[in-house]
Amino acid sequence: MQEPPIGKVTATERSPTSCSAVNFWVHEDVVIRPFDIVRIPHLQNSLSYAIVKDLTYITDSAGHLANFVSSDFGQVEAEPQNVRMGTTIAEAEILYNTKDIEMPVRDGAKVEWADIEGIRNALGLGALRNPIPAGYICMSNDLEIPVEFEGKYLLGPEGAHLNIAGISGLATKTTYAMFLMNSIQQRLDDKVTMIVFNVKGTDLLAIDEPSTEPLTPQQEGEWKKCGLSPTPFKNVTYLYPFKQQAERGHSQSFIDIERLRCQQSRGQAWNYFYDVDSAKRRLRLLFSDIDDPTQSMESILGHIGTIEASSWDHFRQEVESKTMKGGSHDKGNISAQSWRKFHRLLQTRTVDDVFCERACMRPEEKRHVQVREALRKLKPGTTLVIDIAPLPSYLQAFVFGDVVDSVYEAILGGDESLGQDQLGTIVIFADELNKYAPKYSGKEKTLTDNLLEITERGRSVGVILFGAEQFRSGVHDRILGNCSTNVFGRTSPVEVEKCPDYRYFPNNHKWAVQRLRQGELLLQHAIFKTSLIKVRFPVPAYFQPKSR
Amino acid sequence: MGKILSVIRAKSSLECLPCDRVNLDFGNFGDYQDAGEHPAERPFEHPTVPTGKRAVAEVPAGVPSILRFFLDGSRRTYKIADLILDGRRYLPVVAGQIGVAVVERGDDGKMVHPVRRFCRLENAIAFPDSIGSEELSELQTEVNHHVPVFFKLLRYQAKPDDPSRDPADLAVAKIMSEMHDIEIQAVREMEEEQYLNDPCGMLLIDGPLRFRKRFDLVQFRNVLGLSKTFRPTFTVGKGARRADVGSITSALRFAERTSVYKTIDEEKVIGVWYLRIRRRSMMTNPLEGIVKVERYAIDSSDQEEGFESDRIDTISRHILRERNVSPYQSDSRWASHIYPVFLAETYLKSSFMSDMQFKALF
Fold first, then answer.
1. If you placed Cys at A230, which of A133, A294, A541, B34 could pair as Cys (CB 3.0 to 4.6 Å)?
2. Over chain B, what is the mean pLDDT?
3. How far is A477 from chain B (nearest CA, A)?
């Protein structure tokens, strides 16, 4: 049965309809909200679809004073016999016409709730070739419409990279990234490899286990609305930072020991470490946050490749030997003072247990693996979770940078044992992206440079960055600019004013982004025919261990 | 489809001259619609109000209003051409959009909505009466054959011996008379369809009950006329008590009403009284915020003894409660305007063709 109209188009001298905008008044019994999509009959029996951008309520009151007067000149207790005439006016953006008519919609045209097929066509979802479920729209009339991203624009080659911004504490950014990666795994299982960094707590350290509290039918239903099954990730390997502590499974991770043992027994969990050779190649990343105005650090890092050392102690001794004035050691024309500074930094930054030699005693307990070795074991359909949460921030950046560089090198042919054919498209998810690619501040840091390289050229070689951060204003502009998909979670009014990206939002979208509820996001994607779509997405189907 | 003036020129021998098509409605609020009415000599209620005025208390919130229907008739008139008649007289042709809107208060007591079956819109053109009625009827057929909108052609009495009356005013008055006809027709239809049987569901008409027409008075049993303006020089009372309404009403305090006075229109007996619905201290002049209420005396007892004071008080109390909300700043007559009537007027005027669209028909 056809639903009754919910309002009528109103075109006035001051507020006419146009090719892109339409206003309509709303029947008093109808509840409607921004981001709802409506349908309007138009010329030649066509239908135009429009998305509600804002709602206003107007009355015939000429001004506030008229309302003051209507309360017996300011008597708060006065109860007027009559209700002032008023109506809700919806301001909507035209998305699509079934016959490609671009004429303005006519005054008085009846406005109806849109149908699912029409909405999908209107949003540009009608003819996706590689649809990747991205959530669902929930309209005010309880209609629910699945929303997908186009794979070619999310994972390359036409467009790539995803950024998620939003304040912490709503379980939205990471949860959405994981939902999307689960969606990718369910849809493109044999084409995509995923690398996930766990940066806080233990949230992502059991993503292959079903939740201990079974999903409610409603929660399962949300997955089905997206065309997905509520299952945890498959084929997951976990890498934890090594620690010389047998009772903790030789891991620094915050994960509970029982779960860790379980993962180890299934051959899923390993402890990563850096011996001198593997670390030496990436030492730039370890010091990328150190100011180096005289470029002496850079000279040292260039020179350090010539140092041959069999162990970390040996390496530190070699470096220390260059801190002595005079002597026969090759200092590479770098002053002893600079070497001393470097030595101090090296001492403090390589004190962590991850900097050690490969285990030769009880290796089955220590479960040592180098990051590069773990990458070699990956193949499309697998997911690698790298726990960096227990590490200090400079080590987090070091590990993250090492992974990114290793992957990129492998893809570009720098590692013969690892190639794109083996890995397929690689998605790297990093939370707190602002740590690794902060806003441009005069000179790019090594890690930022590498991430820029990935976001600018990665789509053509299949290295895709999924980044998340609290505040977009803290992330490098070029990295954000290269993301063809942007996700906006709830943010603060200060950020809305501060971040240039929000300045181009219509006012109601600025309002909406400050009031999003848990599980709600605004999506911006290359193929959408409107700037932002508000979607809901399901709760995770994997187990999320509680951490203190 | 042709333009109306072209049709008139083509289908008649009238010498029809173009002119600036001006709206004739602006600035006409100054004229009191009750000008020339019969003086009200004696009080018309029982028991009488000895002091000539009485305070009424507002009906408490929650008590259903006895005012259920509100009727407003409106017009928009335009001078659209001039005619030279007999080679001697130069008289205007005036066209107008007229209509009647009836709105009904909903069961919630707050919102009103139009009762479309009683709403009417008509278009009319007033010609001097030196054109014969049969010829005008023929011309009406021709005009309506050639234009997309129906027009009724009327004849106004252009008195060659009364130079004080502007012929355009006479033409407008004719169109107003036509509007009164459709107002009366709307009341008749409402009464026939049993809408006006309930004394607790009265119809309030905007303006005085001065139609200067013959009709069955019984239909107006539960009808009131409410005027936003009145002639302050209208005299009420007799002998030493005779006074101008302006002097009586200016002394009214908030929620006070005058006695009811008897007046006559075309042999119909009318009771009229005045009620202050706004605090005087908030008004810019002493006559602002006062409404004139009229009611036909229909039963013989009413016609002889006047209305019962209690009933007049009850009606006044309900009218007093209608003062809010107010069209302040939207209508210069806001202080005496009743919002449902304002809405009926808004509904009607928004149903008219725009000035530009209407003038383009000529």
1. A541
2. 90
3. 51
The span from the first CA to the last CA of chain B, in angstroms, equals 11
User: How many CB contacts within 8 angstroms connect chain A with chain B?
Assistant: 59
A369 φ, ψ (degrees, to nearest 5): -155, 140
Question: Residue B90: inside a domain, yes or no?
Answer: yes
Task: Count structural domains, chain B.
Answer: 1
Question: DSSP assignment, residue A474?
Answer: G
Spatial contact of A428 and A384, defined as CB atoms under 8 Å apart:
no
**Residue span of the structural domain in which B286 resides:** 15-26+36-360
Inter-chain CB proximity A85 and B282 less than 8 Å: no
CB atoms within 10 A of CB B313: 17
What is the nearest CA distance from B44 to chain A, expressed in angstroms?
29
Q: Do B340 and A70 touch (CB under 8 A)?
A: no
- Give A65's contacts in chain B (Cβ within 8 Å): 328-329
In a domain, B1, yes or no: no
Question: Per the CB < 8 Å rule, is B327 touching A66?
Answer: yes
Closest CA to A323 of A293, A350, A346, A354: A346
Mind listing the pLDDT tens digit for each residue in B238-268? 787 788 999 999 999 999 999 999 998 888 8
Query: What are the CA-CA distances from residue A337 to residues A297, A319, A340 (Å)?
Result: 11, 12, 5
In whole angstroms, give the CA distance from residue B105 to residue A82: 9
Pairing between β-strand A425-430 and β-strand A192-198 as defined by DSSP bridges: parallel
Question: Does residue B2 form part of some domain?
Answer: no
Contacts of A81 in chain B (CB under 8 A): 65, 109-110, 321-324, 339
Contact between A163 and A467 under an 8 Å Cβ cutoff? The reply is yes
Residue A327: pLDDT band by 50, 70, 90 thresholds? low
Please tell me if residue A75 touches chain B, with a CB cutoff of 8 Å. Answer: no
Distance from CA of A15 to the nearest CA of B (A): 17
User: What is the Cα–Cα distance from A204 to A544, expressed in whole angstroms?
Assistant: 7
Distinct helix (H) and strand (E) counts, chain B = 8, 17
Residue B228 lies in a domain: yes
pTM for the model stands at 0.81
> Which A-chain residues 51-70 have CB contacts (< 8 A) with chain B?
60-63, 65-67, 69-70
The string of pLDDT tens digits covering residues B210-232 is 888 888 889 999 999 999 999 99
Q: Is the dihedral of CA A95, A99, A101, A104 positive or negative?
A: negative
Searching chain B, which residue's CA lies closest to the CA of residue A65? B328
Place of tokens 């449902």: B340
Residues from chain A that touch B279, judged by Cβ atoms under 8 A, are: 72-73
DSSP letters, B239-255, are: GGG-EEHHHHHTTPPTT
pLDDT of residue A235: 93
Q: ipTM, 2 decimals?
A: 0.79
